[in-house]
Design a protein that fits this description.
The protein is of the alpha+beta class. The protein has seven helices and nine strands, in the order E-H-H-H-E-E-H-E-H-E-E-E-E-E-H-H. It has one domain. The strands form two sheets. It has a seven-stranded mixed β-sheet, with helices on one face. It is globular.
Length: 208
């Protein structure tokens, strides 16, 4: 499949809402998915897997203890966690933050880019087997990113990422795209007799 980034963003927003997130968080999910796709990363696939996971907390039950963020129930949602830390960008100290039990950690990269843009410093995300550095525009990925991280650290870094890879289209897997569309469909209001009568066609009157 070959889709525009606008189409990806619109569908991702509805899919996140259909999966139970607030509209505000759905907007964050949509922007994050677009950001990943624009850098050649499978944002649609990662979002589809995140939204259909049974173990990810979609509420707001997070605890922030000095420098550690964790969920009270299930795995830490990278969308909620990402929005939380991005809002606290200016509070990021030299020791950074630790995130525990993180689902789909690659979805945190767009939020790290937001922090880099706000602080003017490159931001590094690192787990035991993979890491990344971004200065909001450039991005360097190291290792194979897993679907889960027991512990992930976010901190400032004195280096920039590689030259940016800019993609204007996305190429999601058909099954992942169908998953997002199915979730997005939950946001559509069911048809009523009144809405059908207001739709195209003559309704119950035929003047021909």
């Amino acid at each position: 499949m070959n889709l525009s980034l606008n189409e990806v963003e619109a569908t991702a927003k509805k899919a996140a809402r259909g999966a139970g997130h607030t509209w505000g968080m759905a907007e964050e999910a949509a922007k994050a998915t677009r950001w990943l796709c624009s850098r050649g990363i499978d944002g649609c696939g990662n979002l589809a897997r995140l939204l259909t996971s049974d173990d990810v907390e979609t509420g707001s039950t997070l605890t922030l203890e000095t420098d550690t963020l964790r969920s009270k129930a299930g795995s830490l949602c990278p969308l909620i966690a990402g929005a939380c830390i991005a809002d606290r960008a200016e509070a990021l100290g030299s020791d950074g933050w630790n995130l525990q039990n993180v689902a789909s950690p690659i979805m945190l990269l767009p939020f790290a880019a937001q922090i880099a843009a706000r602080t003017g410093q490159p931001i590094a995300l690192s787990a035991s087997e993979f890491s990344a550095v971004t200065d909001s525009e450039t991005l360097t990925l190291i290792g194979v990113w897993k679907d889960h991280a027991n512990r992930l650290t976010i901190q400032t870094k004195n280096e920039k990422g590689a030259s940016p890879r800019v993609c204007t289209r996305a190429n999601p897997d058909k099954r992942d795209w169908e998953t997002l569309q199915s979730l997005a469909h939950r946001t559509y209001a069911p048809a009523t007799e009144a809405s059908r009568l207001k739709g195209a066609g003559a309704g119950t009157t035929d003047n021909d």
